[in-house]
Design a protein that fits this description.
The chain has 614 residues and is α/β, with parallel strands linked by helices. The chain contains 24 helices and 23 strands. Mean pLDDT is 83; it is low at 322-326 and 337-367.
Length: 614
Amino acid sequence: MAVDIYKEIQNPKLVKKLKREYWEGNNYYGLGNILKKYAGLPYWIPLNFRIQHGIKFFSVTSEDNVKEQLSFYLPKGDSSLFLMYSDKEKEFVKSYLGNKDQNIKNIGAPIIYLDPFLEKVKKENPIIEKKGTVAFPSKGTHFSNVVTDYTAYADMLDNLPEKYKPIKVCMYYLDIERGKDKPFREKGFEVVQNGKLLSQDFLQNFYLNTLSCEYATSNDLLSSPVYYSIYFGLKFFEFGPNVKYENLEEDWHSAYAKEREESKKLAPYRFPIEDVENIDRQRQIANKELGVKHKMSKSELRKFILSQLDYQFIRKIFKPNNKQKTGMIKRIIKLFLPPIFIKVYRKFLPPTSNPIKIKENIDNKAIVGWSGKYNSWKEAQSECSGYDNSIIIDKVLKSTLLVKNGMAAYERDSVTFDKIEYNWSLITTLLYIAASNQNELSLIDFGGALGSSYFQNRRFLDILKLEWNIVEQSHFVEKGREYITDDTLSFFYSIEECLDKKKPSVLIVSSVIQYLENPYLWIDKILSYNFEYIIFDRTAFVADTSERLTVQQVHEPIYEASYPTWFFNEEKFLQQFSEKYELVTSYKQLIEGTINFEDNKKGYWNGFWFKKIK
């Protein structure tokens, strides 16, 4: 677009935000922002596609106008996905371009995704008296000026029967700036506008400006307000003088202007005032042209938007330098977080100041707790009762099968829940890594039981081409292979066995390393495998100058067991990776919370994401 439309915005911060968008057209009328809000995504996430803005009747207009419009939406050399409204227009464009594989998808008009806003308005205004008519005169553009006889138009509106009164006129901001509103104001009509081209609440204002009206009308039957007003429940009729334009720039929008002058001839639908009460017919037409049947659910749209992101696209949009690299990664991670964090349902391990009790069972006994400060693994082990592997595996298998078959939402340590505690830190890290590898991800989940972490977070990972490989003790592997294995989940006895058959780039170590007798020797071993990424999740630390060896007690409803557990010194732990890996980010583990030991030293859980230094 030759005109710098950003100069129309007085807010420099908003301009900066909008210029982050991949394609300027996604900012028009706030269309892209509507999709992001509906999907629960932040405003600044770039949309890797081009959104049709407004109703388009490619199939009935001139070839010159088709060329003019498609040069805007599908410029040569740009293979971006084009999001359209209706099936008919999509098929016409594909046929016109002679490419049946053209990158085009129907998701419906953004206006049908205004649900969060509409619900809020209806809640605040439960009873609204609808009366009168809102008129939408044909609009000008930056390149064409409307020269329709608006004085005659105002007279025609003024002479409508009383049931159509009062009259409100909703005009495009450029037309008001050009003084086109004067004839309507002289008649005493209320004149309103929805905002500017880059106003992010344009369509919300459209709804508010029509909310109190029973009827809508326009002299331009190819315009979007015809179908938007019907969608919002108004009864539409065509009315007004023929449209007339003059071009301000001959090389752009000339075909558009000519098309609008012939709108009554070209329009595929007519809406005579005599048939104004036939709202069923009108809704059927509007729903068809707005692509209502293609409307996605919130989760579907969220997955779709995120699935269009890849590493090259992210790099292109954010263009970080070396100093900005860490900040960029953290910000991209946040792209994948929902707008409202699900409050962690701390059924197991809420924060506590009690040195041992974390959660009490019906016998007033701590379900999980830690105590003691031991000098050696052998000393700690002498205080433990151990555990029965057969009982544990049977309970874990039963719980996992309930989750796998949709009879429980989530399983952790053999206990099922009816509400999932999503691990947002892990989810966003894995999504970012996958985005850098064309949405493909192969990983090893070391000590992953029967797939607890996978089933916990699969809702947000199923958009990926995913290989989730679990390395576990033999009894878990045997049960996993017999009952759990599928196209995504595989089980292995060792990391070496998995590496012989798969090519994982990521190692996940979730709440495992603190239960090993010689954790630092094991770290040396995993460093030798040269994974591209290593993720530690739910790893125990103590706010002290050295490690702390404790005994963990576990009781019903999990199972009866006790075993030695390390709480690491965080600085020493991180130092083990410094020569071969860079720390991308760390994150607090809110699910685990914190504890205070007998000497008031604080225990806590952290997660870390490491990337191999090249």
